[in-house]
Amino acid sequence: MIEIKVPDMTCGHCVKTISEALKGLDATARIEVLLADHLVRVESREAQEAILRCVAEAGYTPTPA
Fold first, then answer.
1. Domain 2-64 listed as CATH 3.40.930.10
2. What's the CA gap between 59 and 65, in Å, rounded?
3. Which tens digits make up the pLDDT trace of 15-36?
4. What DSSP character marks residue 7?
């Protein structure tokens, strides 16, 4: 399980955008988004670096939690 903080994730649209981007990276990933905590939990076969890059390419500023 990889946890990342996304401080600029502020609304439902952000949640959808990040979730769709991560599903595009790994369709089998399990994704949990805690909007109030600006936290995304990802269980994926992809490396943490790839997940961080994916969220960044979606337009956000992720950091390891």
1. no
2. 18
3. 999 999 999 999 999 999 999 9
4. T
